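Internal QA ticket QA-208
Title: Verify multi-chain structure generation after dependency bump
Assignee: T.L.

Test input:
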Amino acid sequence: MEKNSCKAAICVDHVSLKYYNGVYGIRDISVALNKGELIALIGANGAGKSTFLNVLCGLLQPTEGDIYYDKKIIDVSTPFHQIGWSKQTHAIDWYLNVYDNVFFGARMSGMKKKEAKQRTLEVLELVGLLELKDRDVDALSGGQQQRVQIARALVHNASILILDEPTTGLDAQTSENLLNHLRERANDGVIVIVSSHDLNLVDAFCDKVLLLKEGKIVTFESKQQFLARYVDKEVLTIAYEGDLPPVAIQQLEEIAYFVENDHQIRLEIAREMQVGTIIRIIDPYVRVVDIKRDSPGLREAYLEVAREKGEVTQG
Ligand SMILES: Nc1ncnc2c1ncn2[C@@H]1O[C@H](COP(=O)(O)OP(=O)(O)OP(=O)(O)O)[C@@H](O)[C@H]1O
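Actual output:
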């Protein structure tokens, strides 16, 4: 992708990062990221997620290629308040307490004192650290230190948020609050990129999926396209009262794979199939009492890709 032909907010142009030992963290990556998108960055251990995020926020200089934000190159000189980032490994100021770590992050981005105070309290509440705001950071647990880092990334009005496994070590409620907040920021026009192994969680919030393998892009597309390409079946469960006669069972067998067990049938159906078609077959014979339709999500799609490529899968 040429710089001038890329109309997106962030243009990653044939970017590679080779570490000093000769290992490529990422190789020849080109993507265009638009404002308002929440992108889930996924892939097995060692796929290149952290490397990509570090390059994206200017912490590592690509060994080949360039990254443009609104047509300007992102590198170590990019004003840090444009980008809110939280690394997997901790980068917090150990000589400040929890509140000051976040507050001075806001002040350094140029935020006025009153707003910085208000935003600091808001993000500390969001990550569940309000009660610990006066505590020294070295007296926090690993998960709590990570929350300080996330709060620092969120406190200023960054136009790009880059978060490397932000939900690792967070409890379920805090993780969900955080993803909700990131969704809102994306809706307000921020570009949000989140790497995660918790595919069930990011599934509910992301617009796009960027899947890496061995430093290269396997796929970058909308979540809907990704799911449609890799998982085309849904599971329909119908509970009923009464008995299904052989004629109904035969008709069901012609439509979909199904199992029957204790007045409940489970069918694997195509995504586009109308549930009414199934109900009409059994309705003359039994009373339907419950219908449930389960769509496979990001995790199932990821496992399907991994299976296709004969890989060991992530958890
Ligand atoms: N500092 C480094 N020096 C040399 N090689 C590195 C360094 N950091 C990462 N690598 C290598 O680069 C590749 C990509 O690693 P990276 O940490 O980006 O993967 P990841 O997808 O973030 O993995 P994980 O899910 O385990 O965090 C791996 O082969 C890794 O061994």
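Spot checks passed. Residues 163 and 194 are 5 Å apart (CA to CA).
Status: verified.
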